[in-house]
Amino acid sequence: MDWGCGPGRIIRHLPEVINSGCSFYGTDYNEQSIAWCSRNIPEVNFNLNHLEAKLPYQNDFFEVIYGISIFTHLSEAMHYDWFNELYRVLKPGGILFMTTQGANFLVKLNKAEKTRFEAGALVVRGKVKEGHRTFSAFQPKTYMLALFDQMEVLEHVEFPIGNVKVVPQDIWIVRK
Question: Please, are residues 176 and 93 in contact by the beta-carbon 8 Å criterion?
Answer without folding.
Answer: yes
